[in-house]
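Re: zinc ion structure - here you go.
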Amino acid sequence: MSMASNAYLQARLSSLIRYCLEHELVRTATFYAERFYYIDPAHHDARHLLATAYLKSGQTHCALHLVNLQSDNTCPGCHELVAKCCSNLGRYAKAREAYEFARLYAPNAKGEL
Ligand SMILES: [Zn+2]
């Protein structure tokens, strides 16, 4: 697959998954997010969107595993996802810490991805 069509596919998948998440079509979002992640596991949006879909579908550990990284390849929304996962799992200290990171790195936060 060429780079161009790959980028096109990534953009299409990304907007499709966002649409599904916005409209609470969680199973469909998860389906496409898993494919997106399979195509390009290093792509930030792929990981971020799959984590969001997993969190929404109650697969908290899977979601946390995807975004709980010491990496430059994260966004404030990733830290927020970590925080939500940790709260769900009762890890409140870690959740507070992740919320702090989200705030620190998002001085002009525009909300979730
Ligand atoms: Zn992110």
